[in-house]
Amino acid sequence: MKRLIYLSLIVIFCCDLQIMAQSDKNIQNKETSNADVALMFMNSYKNFLDSLQTRASIDKWVINNSLLTDKFKVSYKNILDDAYKVEPKVGLDFDPIFDAQDYPDKGFKVIKYDSASGYITLGGVDWKEFTVSVKTIFQNNKCLIDGAGIINIPKDKQRKP
User: Fold this and answer.
1) DSSP reduced 3-state for 106
2) Is the pTM of this model over 0.85?
C-alpha cells in the first residue's frame, strides 16, 4: 500500500512538473497577458490541491514553481513558518494563496485587471462570491506572480470575509 501511495505521488509530481514547464512556455508568448498568467497559476494551483493535499508536497510545488518570484516564495515560507511557531500543531488554518480554507471547485475567471498596478482580481467560476487578488510583475523578461491571497498583497486588496 505504501509503495502504491509513493508511486502515485511520484506520478502526480512528474505530471505537475510537465504542467509547470508548459505554463512557462506559454509565458514566453508575448500575447500572454498578466491576467492570463495569474489565471493559469491559480487554476494550476487549484488542480494541484485537488490531486494531492500534503503540506510538504504543496510547499515543494510552490518553491519549485517557475511562475513565482523569489520574493513570493520567501514570503510564503515565512508566513507558514511564523504560523507554526504560534500554533505548532496546526500552523496556518487557511491557505495563504487563496486566503481561504476552501476554494471554487471549477476554478477561476478574471473579474478585474488593473494593468497599471499589476493587480488582478480572480473570481470563482462556480462560486461568484469568492474572489482572490493576485499581483503580477515583469521580471527577467517574463510575467511572474509576486503576490496572491495574503502573500505580498496589502490588506486593502485582500479578500473580504
Assistant:
1) coil
2) no
